Amino acid sequence: MRYVSTRGGIEPVSFSQAVMMGLATDGGLLLPESFPQVDAATLQRWAKLSFQALAVEVMQPFVGEDISREELVALVEKSYASFSHPEVTPLVEPGNLRILELFHGPTAAFKDVALQFLGNLFELLLERSGQRLNILGATSGDTGSAAIYGVRGQERIDIFILHPKGRVSPIQERQMTTVLDANVHNIAITGTFDDGQRIVKELFNDLDFKQEYKLGAVNSINWARILAQVVYYFYAWGRVSGGDASQKVSYSVPTGNFGDIFAGYVALRMGLPVERLILATNRNDILSRFVNSGVYQTGEVHPTISPSMDIQISSNFERYLYFLMDQNPAKVRELMEQMGREGKLEVSPEKRAEVAALFHAAAVSEDETREQIRETYAETGYILDPHTAVGVHAARAFPGAICLATAHPAKFGAAVKEAIGVESEPPPSLQGLMEKETRCAVLAADAGVIRDFMKSTLAD
Ligand SMILES: Cc1ncc(COP(=O)(O)O)c(C=O)c1O
Ligand SMILES: N[C@@H](CCOP(=O)(O)O)C(=O)O
């Protein structure tokens, strides 16, 4: 399997090169040249597999020759041994809902599914090459701690994580800043997540710096992140369909950077029987506006009770755009350049109809989010986190849709308490965080400042 850039400016690379490259060197995002196809018999067989066995089947064709089956099995086993639920991503059915719980990993958010795997994958590839890696990532709250937990203490890696100061939940902040391993460097930037993501991309596009400092990516710009997330779409389908390929299912996905829902799109292109992808945003609605109008235009970032989705520039949108533009990299480059200049791009009415045939999009308000948490709790006793509640609310017109539960409600205690008067019992991994020692630098949201900080930290 070879990987190409959405902007067409690189020679095709292997899986391990794609993982180490992170952002493509032409500024685009990496994608496989083609998708392996899954037929009805395979779907039926996969529906009976454990999460781990399924992960090996789904990932194998994408990793190609780079990683042997034995190595892949070992990577998968190690990555999901850290999850507290034997099914890894169980499907539960409170009342008439279908909830895919993705928060049983070490940091209680769906990011662990991919970042436990990516941390172990980096370790394997770096051991082989004898190299070191300096990870640079941006977080709106969950990627940061999941990435830190994926690589903390690894000898060949230093990790620098930018989070927007004061714009993540107190627990999310503590999950990152209480990790005192010498290879972990937390930076609170005075800006938004979008500023952090812009800085990350700016520094990855500084090719001299990227090469000299061996930058690595943990955000969903890294293809391995998307790949690991494809697995649970197949897993959930197997649970509800029993393997009958004629049964199509809809998925509701709380969305910010378009990574998780793009993984669903990849599963669809591989042959998963998908009815609709329900794209749920909070007030920061660039993506739902796009689906409903064909115009992709940035706006101001508003703080919400689902802070991990407070994003107005969605990184993986470019990957979807590549397919929407019939895999024409020149067109993608033109549109992304226009986006860079004008903060806006628009697709034709035909393309908009194509988008609307697959995606249903809704922007869910703060009141609706709280109301959904309240209603689900009153009717079933089940506590939704605010991000998951956004997805459940958006799926109201789609009975039977699988709603992705992207975080444990205890990560957002204040919002949950405001909605239902009680907090959710925190899992052991979230207990005692507020009493622990912390370490974090506070810096301006400026690429030059972050570059200098990385250089001086690594020189010490
Ligand atoms: C809890 C939670 N839900 C949903 C999302 C949105 O996922 P994505 O950015 O992949 O669209 C995020 C982070 O982005 C998150 O942390
Ligand atoms: N919600 C994310 C934002 C970063 O997204 P990513 O999927 O590209 O890493 C977070 O929690 O940090």
TrEMBL record:
Key words of the record: Amino-acid biosynthesis, Lyase, Pyridoxal phosphate, Threonine biosynthesis
Tryptophan synthase beta chain-like PALP domain boundaries: 100-358
Annotated ranges, domain Threonine synthase N-terminal: 2-80
GO molecular function, one term: threonine synthase activity
Record keyword Zinc present: no
Pfam family, one: THR4_C
UniProt pathway annotation: Amino-acid biosynthesis; L-threonine biosynthesis; L-threonine from L-aspartate: step 5/5
Coiled-coil features, chain-numbered ranges: none
Reactions this protein catalyses: O-phospho-L-homoserine + H2O = L-threonine + phosphate
EC number: 4.2.3.1
Cofactors that this protein relies on: pyridoxal 5'-phosphate
GO biological process: threonine biosynthetic process
InterPro entries in UniProt: Ser/Thr_deHydtase_PyrdxlP-BS, Thr_synth_N, Thr_synth_N_sf, Thr_synthase-like, Threonine_Synthase, TrpB-like_PALP, TrpB-like_PALP_sf
Residues modified to N6-(pyridoxal phosphate)lysine: K111
The family this protein is said to belong to: Belongs to the threonine synthase family.
NCBIfam families listed in its UniProt record: thrC
Name by which UniProt lists this protein: Threonine synthase
